[in-house]
Amino acid sequence: MNLLSVLFKGGWLMLPIFIASIIAVAIIIDRYIVLRKSRLNAPAFLVKIRSLLKRNDINGAVKYCMEEKSPAANIIRKGLKKHNLGHERVTEAIDNAGKQEINKLEKGLSVLATISGVAPLLGFLGTVTGMISAFMNIESLQGAANPSDLAGGIWEALLTTAFGLAVGIIAFTAYNYLVAAINKLVLDMEVISNDVIDILEEVRTGTSIKDDNDIIELDR
Amino acid sequence: MKYNNSKNSSYVFSFGLHAFLLLIFFFVNFNVEFNTEDYVTIGFGAIGRTGSSGAIGKEVTEKKNVAEVEKQKQQSEVENKKVELPQVVNTDDENKIIAADKKKETVEAPPQKVEPIKETESDKKGKEFDGSGEGTFGFDIDFGGKGQRKIYSYSLPAYPEGVSKEIDVKLRFTILPDGTVGRIIPLIKADGRLESAAINSLRQWRFEPLSSNQKQLEQTAVITFPYRLQ
Asked: What is the CA B178 to chain-centroid distance, rounded?
């Protein structure tokens, strides 16, 4: 008896759990790749942006942001494009772009959270249906059922539960990891966007608000 | 934005990963191997008691002869009775003279009844059957509470002629994984003829083969053949 035939003994409820598993793994892979690509060396990025902005090279800064291809750079690019419209419009643009980027980063996570909750429930549903079939067997055999008569229902009950829990555990762990990673990324984005707004204000007013050494404190 | 275009490829990858896992599952055998008890105790017949040792079992070869002999005896007895009864019935119904008929009955009856009794006594003295034809033979195979090794076929030993002993022949033997009997070692030194009869019959025993889930071990068992005179 191979493992595949063991899985088939789980009954029809194994199918939705299996589909949920495919979707969950796809979302996990997708979000992991997105998060890896979204990483940005914040101190180096800020140093470069600061040097460009201090030279009043807004176009150079926008080009640099386009080269970086990360959500933070995307936010700054959108803010810099509104440079001529004043400080408030820049801040507003950065806020809006930040919300959009967070929304993009969190795309699919709600589905992953749903799967992490629903997959174990599907497993428990399999337990109930398996037990129902086992008890129906007992009734049809008028109580003279031996363990092998009940094995089918018990197989279904245990396998769906095990498979559902396995999918749920993987999905829940990955969800928490991804949420933590996204939170860290969002925090970095906020810090970078605040710094860029400050730099723009410095350039506009000609005063020095922040020391360069502060940027290095941003550890990644 | 390149960092947001990995969705389709991740679904393809996920599907491929699951297909690969299912393929692995197809080739991975799932067998829960459980240990077999390597020592089996077999209780056979009425051990430690004298006298009758049980009834007809389901044995294959040797038992048939005994059963046939018994059938023949029963048939001969029945035939004798069939001959007797009509005579009695006829005399009662037709002839009402009581004295004459009673004499005939008393004269005719004794020789017919005596003959079979003499035969059976001589048979018993000469052949000395073991008690395998009567009572119950219990096959108690103890697997230490972890299942049973079923007996597929067995043959009971015939009581060898010329031996008049009531002993328990105790044999230790190994049951091979395929269900055949391996080495046989007598535990108690008794009569050689009884031992060889028991060993020869034990060689023909077949047990349930071990399933593929079980460890393929030789199991040791001890069997006791109680030879009883009747």
From this structure: 19
| A2 phi/psi in degrees, rounded to 5 | -90, 170
Contacts of B213 in chain A (CB under 8 A): none
Query: Residue A57 is which amino acid?
Result: D
The structure tokens 């070692």 sit at: B185
ipTM associated with this complex: 0.79
| Beta carbons of B25 and A7 less than 8 Å apart | yes
A104 at interface of B, judged by CB pairs closer than 8 A: yes
A142-184 confidence digits (pLDDT tens)? 878 777 788 888 888 999 999 999 999 999 999 999 999 999 9
Q: Which residues contact A23 (CB under 8 A, 6 or more apart)?
A: A111, A115, B14
pLDDT, mean of residues B115-138: 38
Q: What is the spatial distance between Cα B195 and Cα B101, in angstroms, rounded to a whole number?
A: 56
**pLDDT tens, residue by residue, A59-84:** 888 888 888 878 888 888 888 888 87
Locate tokens 């419009």: which residue?
Answer: A89
Cα–Cα distance measured from residue A190 to residue A193, given in angstroms and rounded to the nearest whole number: 5
Please tell me the distance from the alpha carbon of residue B92 to that of residue A91, in angstroms, as a whole number: 134
Q: Which residues pair with B44 in a beta bridge?
A: B139
Closest Cα of chain A to B13: distance in Å?
A: 7
Highest mean pLDDT among A90-94, B17-21, B163-167: B17-21
Asked if B211 is an interface residue toward chain A (Cβ–Cβ < 8 A), one would say no
pLDDT in tens, B42-89: 655 544 444 433 333 344 444 445 455 555 555 555 455 444 444 444
Question: What type of residue is A30?
Answer: D
Does the beta-carbon distance from A3 to B31 stay under 8 Å?
no
What are the structure tokens assigned to A108, written together?
A: 């699919």
